[in-house]
Task: inverse folding
């Protein structure tokens, strides 16, 4: 492939005409022969690179990057071979059209390996240098190695039931990677081409990162850091941030394919409450429907869905119902979604102009044309009755789109879509162009419909298939995984990779969808899942049950403990989620995201918000001891609260762990102020008692509290609470600063219960100038005291030993 591309490049650039360099106020355009490259600066650190053949530039449109973002521009300082921004120096070789991007000191951030090429059929290829020390992450929930170096991938949304570690492609296409470890720091590359593109990270040719597609625009964005965190934040600036989730969406969620009746759902809810397992959501898979037809209910097994939703809500549960995108082909059967879809001309057509009909769960089915705004509006309106019935959220499955009884697993590539909006010219397009955005536009239609039907609610939509930017509309999960230790390990990698790729709200089917987990596997998966963004247990109908109680009281106790800890941590988790909505920082992150110098890169270690480090065994099926890599600066054991005595290393420290089913190693960064709440059985329940501030003294000591009323426009209406906390330690005292509070949301607590971990003081505590009673537990190495929450700034001092 490299030889072919370089040969085509040479042919394309062999024209005798001299290169033409045209300076733009926000970039440069260089043409030679039939080829041209245009590099423009959207911001000082984000570049857009577009290729043209024969002077024809691709359409300036995108499903991933909103029009107002593509329109951004900064003025640049022109140079003979390119331009400079305040953050970057860009040069384009007029002989080869190769682009090089450097930092202001001249260090190379990214450089073309050879000349780009556009083939005679419209396909293109290009290459980037791969320095020896550079590593590559992202691409959503792709399988394969965590570091993508040495592997290759195809972006083509595919239904991959029971996929394996080497399966590719899978359900999603997110053609974005982050490179780290290069001379000029980290950078990201997003190829905004939704067709069947490919990335090769030195798989076929060591040292060359090759990118191409058989059709579609040669249109990509280069995002400079220099840190990984800056790259990821800027990628979110480009493609959008996930809106803050409804609080209950962070609770424990119980699912199965399928809970077969109203009676069974009530039994599951009753058992969760009887066994005091905190939970917020029960999911309804396709069997709640009439003959698997979306937007219907089986009147025999679910005779009164609104009553069920109401009764569960009273007990602190919400229902999430599946609505697959395939509408049953049911003419003259009074099936409203089909009849109204036909009346509005909302279904896809074949290349011959006939309505496309294919088999899926309802049997012969038709498929909405989601690239058409009128069809998205129609689809969103179908949720009216479910919203009125009190269904809390919705699940868009099978939207690759998956088609039965065909080797391709999807619809013909010449099916006809109609495109309008998002900067595109109104036109018809073949499915080959639209395939990878089809699931994203399905979830978009659902999200926008729900927002219109209930403007005060935050829509909860889960999608299986999506494209870059789809985080604006839905949470996602990793699809039909397996009940194996390897899939537990893979799921951690997938969730971290999704976070780096825009999808902070992600889930894996805890326990595995196929096969049935052993008691130990389900327990460990629940323990790890308690620290992931969306916590859902889900399994196929032909597998053993996977509810928390199925393996007896000992495993139930361990699983309950993990879920309870998630609920106690809700104030911290919600503050991390709100940070994501503002900045784009993922909820779960690789350790090196916040601690780049540490070199900690175990695929089973990750942080929740940067302050909690979860460190499961890198070989979770093995009883062998292992070392946990801990970044410099100090850490506390989350469960005991004691400071960790670690073995010092050059870049990071380490502590030994021996796997035990009753312990998931979790550590707290020294310098963390961690908000926690009293235990509740549902996040819809108001906690009783004081809000805890757990203080782990150390460098850069601080924490943030964010809570709100859970409604869509909480911040706009001032119905939120944000407060920061700081602490500093001297030889004389530990000083704790409670910052001024923002927002008008009234908290449920009246006091803070402050717990200082470590030998911080003797118990002499003052709030401003008033003495405060404190309890010093020498054995636990804690100091605990209560202070009133006045809603204003305050200072607490604790005398040193």
Result:
């Amino acid at each position: 492939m490299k030889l072919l591309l370089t040969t085509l490049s040479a042919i394309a650039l062999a024209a005798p005409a001299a290169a033409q360099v045209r300076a733009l106020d926000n970039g440069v355009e260089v043409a030679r022969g039939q080829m041209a490259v245009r590099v423009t600066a959207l911001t000082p650190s984000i570049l857009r690179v577009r290729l043209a053949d024969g002077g024809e530039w691709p359409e300036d449109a995108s499903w991933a990057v909103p029009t107002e973002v593509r329109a951004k521009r900064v003025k640049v300082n022109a140079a003979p071979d390119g331009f400079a921004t305040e953050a970057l120096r860009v040069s384009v070789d007029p002989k080869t059209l190769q682009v090089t991007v450097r930092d202001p000191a001249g260090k190379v951030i990214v450089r073309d390996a050879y000349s780009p090429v556009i083939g005679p059929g419209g396909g293109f290829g290009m290459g980037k240098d791969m320095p020896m020390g550079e590593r590559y992450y992202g691409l959503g929930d792709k399988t394969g190695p965590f570091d993508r170096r040495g592997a290759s991938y195809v972006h083509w949304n595919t239904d991959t039931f029971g996929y394996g570690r080497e399966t590719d492609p899978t359900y999603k296409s997110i053609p974005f990677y982050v490179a780290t470890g290069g001379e000029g720091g980290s950078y990201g590359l997003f190829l905004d081409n939704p067709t069947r593109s490919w990335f090769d990270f030195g798989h076929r040719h060591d040292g060359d990162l090759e990118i191409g597609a058989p059709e579609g625009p040669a249109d990509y964005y280069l995002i400079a850091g220099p840190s990984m965190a800056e790259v990821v934040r800027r990628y979110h600036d480009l493609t959008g941030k996930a809106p803050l989730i409804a609080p209950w969406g962070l609770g424990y969620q119980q699912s199965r394919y399928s809970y077969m009746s109203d009676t069974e759902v009530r039994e599951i809810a009753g058992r969760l409450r009887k066994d005091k397992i905190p939970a917020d959501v029960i999911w309804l898979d396709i069997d709640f429907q009439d003959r698997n037809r979306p937007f219907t209910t089986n009147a025999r097994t679910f005779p009164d869905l609104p009553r069920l939703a109401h009764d569960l809500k009273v007990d602190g549960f919400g229902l999430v119902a599946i609505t697959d995108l395939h509408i049953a082909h049911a003419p003259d059967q009074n099936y409203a979604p089909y009849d109204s879809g036909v009346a509005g001309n909302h279904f896809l057509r074949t290349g011959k102009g006939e309505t496309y009909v294919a088999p899926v769960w309802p049997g012969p089915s038709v498929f909405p044309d989601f690239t058409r705004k009128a069809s998205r509006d129609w689809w969103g309106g179908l949720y009216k009755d479910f919203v009125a019935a009190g269904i809390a959220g919705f699940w868009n499955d099978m939207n690759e789109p998956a088609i039965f009884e065909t080797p391709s697993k999807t619809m013909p590539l010449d099916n006809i879509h109609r495109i309008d909006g998002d900067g595109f010219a109104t036109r018809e397009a073949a499915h080959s162009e639209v395939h990878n955005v089809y699931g994203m536009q399905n979830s978009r239609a659902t999200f926008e419909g729900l927002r219109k039907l209930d403007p005060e609610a935050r829509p909860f939509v889960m999608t299986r298939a999506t494209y870059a930017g789809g985080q604006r509309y839905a949470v996602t999960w990793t699809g039909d995984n397996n009940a194996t230790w390897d899939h537990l390990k893979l799921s951690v990698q997938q969730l971290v990779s999704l976070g780096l790729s825009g999808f902070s709200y992600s889930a894996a089917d805890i326990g595995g969808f196929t096969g049935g987990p052993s008691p130990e596997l389900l327990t460990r998966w629940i323990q790890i899942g308690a620290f992931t963004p969306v916590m859902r247990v889900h399994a196929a109908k032909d597998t053993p049950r996977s509810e928390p109680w199925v393996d007896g009281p000992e495993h139930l106790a361990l699983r309950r403990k993990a879920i309870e800890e998630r609920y106690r941590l809700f104030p911290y988790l919600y503050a991390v989620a709100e940070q994501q909505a503002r900045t784009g920082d993922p909820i779960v992150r690789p350790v090196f995201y916040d601690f780049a110098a540490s070199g900690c890169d175990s695929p089973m270690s990750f942080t929740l918000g940067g302050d909690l480090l979860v460190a499961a065994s890198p070989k979770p099926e093995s009883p062998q001891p292992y070392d946990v890599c801990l970044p410099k600066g100090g850490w506390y054991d989350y469960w005991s609260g004691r400071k960790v005595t670690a073995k010092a290393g050059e870049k990071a420290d380490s502590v030994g762990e021996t796997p035990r089913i009753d312990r998931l190693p979790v550590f707290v960064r020294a310098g963390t102020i961690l908000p926690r709440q009293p235990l509740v059985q549902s996040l819809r329940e108001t906690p009783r008692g004081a809000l805890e501030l757990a203080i782990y003294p150390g460098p850069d000591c601080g924490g943030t509290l964010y809570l709100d009323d859970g409604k869509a426009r909480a911040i706009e209406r001032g119905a939120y609470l944000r407060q920061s906390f700081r602490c500093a330690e001297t030889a004389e005292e530990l000083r704790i600063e409670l910052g001024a509070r923002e927002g008008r949301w009234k908290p449920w607590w009246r006091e803070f219960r402050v717990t200082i971990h470590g030998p911080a003081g003797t118990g002499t505590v003052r709030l401003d100038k008033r003495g405060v009673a404190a309890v010093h537990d020498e054995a636990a190495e804690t100091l605990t005291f209560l202070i009133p929450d006045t809603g204003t700034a305050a200072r607490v001092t604790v005398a040193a030993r």
